[in-house]
Amino acid sequence: MELSCKSEYAVLALLELAAHFSQGEPLQIRQIAAQQSIPDRYLEQLLATLRRGGLVRSQRGAKGGYYLAREPHNITVLEALECIEGGNIQQTCPEDEPKTSESAIVREIWQEARDCAHAILQNYTLQDLRDRHDQRQDVNPMYYI
Amino acid sequence: MELSCKSEYAVLALLELAAHFSQGEPLQIRQIAAQQSIPDRYLEQLLATLRRGGLVRSQRGAKGGYYLAREPHNITVLEALECIEGGNIQQTCPEDEPKTSESAIVREIWQEARDCAHAILQNYTLQDLRDRHDQRQDVNPMYYI
DNA sequence: TGCAAACCCCACTGGAGAACCGGGGTATAA
DNA sequence: TTATACCCCGGTTCTCCAGTGGGGTTTGCA
Question: Over the stretch B92-103, which tens digit does the pLDDT of each residue have?
Fold first, then answer.
């Protein structure tokens, strides 16, 4: 799992869409980009990936934009990450399968660590993040401007 | 955490050194590379990094080689990984600090996932991996040839 | 019908890291 | 002294990230 800037942008965009989910009107790339300080041309690519992954839908033409394909509590952070960096198998390492018995064990440990991180990320939905955000704003409304 | 081929090579090399830890004689790069199917010139670089990180020591000259700096049960997998990919802060993302309140929350989730994976990796020592390996060999000695 | 808003697709750049290869230098045992 | 084996530095190819840019297509609206 990468947990890179790219992934962060994707989740932020989804959060922005989640915040306007009940409105029914689509959000434009420009608006999302401005709200979350994301380069709009880059965000465009990420949203296209999210669309192909079935997490968002788009409306073309004037007054178009993007909206969530599902309700915020039905989209997990893990889904977003797997969608955005799904094609990245990154097996530049020529060994597609372990050559030694030690290698197999090391990869078991790798998988165990990944599974643990995945469990955390699967446990959070967009709605969870929104709730956490709103809670924090209520407690200390002047902290973020 | 990368969990790449590079990291796997490093742990495999450490495991090989751990297997010969009690002998007292150093292991040569060639031997480790042959045993674990690692390109020897690449392994050389990794061992140099591990040496600079204090995980292994080297003996130069004829009959030289590498040996573990500590006992196998005192070296964790996490240590190996942090050593081998330590310089990799990977903040190509220009945002050194979160710009929005949502961004801060997303990074908290990121950190939580990373911490979870780190906990797993810290829990395993080289000795643990050796034990697991030996156990498996005992139970089904024909499984790996 | 025509315009402009907005998505859509493709290509390109610059930088970093992975996974190597190779050459030459240096320390050390025999 | 010589062969061994580590040491250091640099180059190569590849992929991905983080953007930027150009042109095409769909659509609402006047």
Answer: 566 677 779 999
In this predicted structure, the answer to whether residue B88 has a pLDDT above a threshold of 70 is no
* A88 nearest nt, CA–C1': D16
Residue nearest to nucleotide D3 (CA to C1'): B62
The answer to whether the beta carbons of residues B49 and B84 sit under 8 Å apart is yes
The one-letter code for the residue type at B26 is P
Between A35, A105, A112, which is nearest B133 by CB? A105
HSE-CB at B11 with a 13 A cutoff on CA atoms is 33
**ipTM of this predicted complex?**
0.90
Provide the Cα torsion A4, B103, A121, A21; round to 10°. -120
CA distance B30 to A95: 19
Q: How far is CA A64 from CA A19, A24, A48, A67, B134, in A?
A: 17, 12, 14, 10, 62
Which domains does chain A possess? 5-90+97-139 (1.10.10.10)
The C-alpha atoms of residue A124 and residue A75 are separated, in whole angstroms, by: 8
